[in-house]
Design a protein that fits this description.
The protein is α+β, with helices and mostly antiparallel strands. It is globular and about 50 Å long. The protein starts with a helix and ends in a 5-residue tail after the last helix.
């Protein structure tokens, strides 16, 4: 029991440190960009950058403290994203390729790697703003071959997330792939805004990667 608790605690701390690193990198970049600009936009960018850099360096959140809230309050509000794409291939074929999770980084550019740990658990590494990355372990909790895969992240994840991908067989023989995802960004709502600014926000990632997934199948590169 002691070893298990220590492992969980260490994993959680690693996730917190990584979140602060991402926040600090984004904050520093915004601060520099803001200082180079003029006017209200530059001042705003510098202010947000300075705030993120301060929070990353100290671990304190002055905005939340001023509001009388803890830093965890921002994490209590997950962000929900969903996208669909129609692929001109049978549902079972698309499911089979997706279910072999190691395949996904080949057609999804925002994923660096997926490693299968056992029948249900896997380790994911994804790109984040400014050349950083986030990682987590996930567990499949709903698996219906040819129809649906549901998952959630395990404790200690840098980005807490849960979701599902559905494979709907269409009358013409194609498949509608529908991804629904709920996640909490590492630095709360400001972190989500900064990630979006740098083009590494999950809603953007999913939309782009689903199009690449579609192109890979319909281009005939997947059997």
């Amino acid at each position: 029991m002691t070893n298990s608790s220590s492992t969980t605690s260490s994993t959680g701390m690693a996730g917190m440190d990584q979140g602060r690193m991402i926040s600090g990198a984004a904050g520093g970049a915004l601060l520099l960009m803001g200082l180079r600009k003029r006017g209200i936009l530059g001042l705003g960018m510098a202010a947000v950058g300075g705030y993120l850099a301060y929070r990353a360096a100290t671990g304190n959140d002055p905005v939340m403290a001023a509001a009388g809230l803890s830093g965890s309050a921002t994490a209590a509000k997950p962000i929900f994203v969903e996208h669909s794409v129609v692929i001109d291939r049978p549902a079972q074929q698309v499911y089979d390729y997706w279910r072999k999770l190691e395949n996904l980084p080949q057609v999804m550019s925002h994923l660096e790697s997926v490693t299968t740990l056992d029948e249900k658990r896997s380790r994911w590494v994804a790109k984040a703003p400014l050349g950083t990355h986030v990682e987590w372990e996930a567990e499949i909790v709903n698996d219906k071959p040819g129809q649906r895969i549901g998952w959630h992240s395990l404790p200690g994840a840098t980005v807490d997330n849960a979701g599902s991908v559905q494979f709907e067989e269409l009358p013409g023989g194609g498949t509608r792939v529908h991804v629904a995802l709920s996640y909490r960004p590492p630095a709360g709502p400001l972190g989500a805004a900064v990630a979006k600014l740098f083009g590494e926000e999950p809603s953007q990632q999913i939309a782009e990667d689903l199009q690449k997934f579609k192109a890979a199948f319909e281009g005939g590169s997947k059997n």
